[in-house]
């Protein structure tokens, strides 16, 4: 039974705890990303789901943050899911991404809207782990609007229904869903809604339940989660103390049934 360690982490464009994007020097960005790489080496995950990671953005040093992390943390593979792209003097390109020590067999990006700044979406990947094909969704939801988050969850669920019909015969488990939900697990919002609807595919567990992840210096809110399907036997969950972003990373270890 393969064991898998998965981290979800919103890295805030590499700026660390600087509150305003674009005020961090390229040197400081690289130092902070190397700090994230060292943390990942210590946590030893098999797969990392990243949010707010830049491909090439003027406000984030104009270099590929994902490839920089891949090289410094020693990951075999990486894939980008760009949600925002703007050319010109104030160029930017960023979104979600995966780092993986296992082969990424397929990947697809779904963007929720058409804005060139502030747009959200999700990145889907099928990753081969010890002979098992594991589907993983890396999701980032709207930061301020409950109505928008619920619409985005509806879009994800409709997409998952189509993928389940087309691809589920190849999967060893139902999709793992993780990311930055920008809402806690309690109350009538996107996290609770997704957990309810995922029951169509069997029992899902939500991790962590109540441990806060934001803001990282003194966390008050749980915004970052990993949803595990019944085919993944839960082993452990840790919200990692870290000041490398305004979010704390979440690490879940599981066994693939």
Summary?
With 257 residues, the chain is an alpha+beta fold. It is built from 4 helices and 12 strands, in the order E-H-E-H-E-E-E-E-E-H-E-H-E-E-E-E. The protein has one domain: Deoxyribonuclease I, Chain A, CATH 3.60.10.
**Name of the level-1 CATH class:** Alpha Beta
What kind of sheet is the major sheet?
A: 6 strands, mixed
Tell me the total number of β-strands. Answer: 12
On the 0 to 100 scale, the average pLDDT is 97
Helix-strand makeup class: alpha+beta
Structure in words:
By secondary structure, this protein is an alpha+beta fold. It has one domain: Endonuclease/exonuclease/phosphatase (Deoxyribonuclease I, Chain A). 23% of the residues lie in helices and 35% in strands. It is built from 4 helices and 12 strands. The protein has helices spanning 26-43, 65-73, 146-167, 190-198, and strands at residues 3-10, 47-54, 77-86, 92-100, 104-111, 121-129, 132-140, 176-180, 204-207, 224-229, 232-239, 250-256. The chain has a 6-stranded mixed beta sheet with strand order 3-4-2-1-12-11. It has a 6-stranded mixed beta sheet with strand order 5-6-7-8-10-9, with no helix packed on it. Helix 1 packs across helix 2 and helix 3 (146-167) packs parallel to helix 4 (190-198). The longest helix is centred in the middle third of the chain and has 22 residues, at 146-167.
Question: Notable features of this structure?
Answer:
257 residues, six-stranded mixed beta sheet, single chain, 4 helices, Deoxyribonuclease I, Chain A, 35% strand, alpha+beta, globular
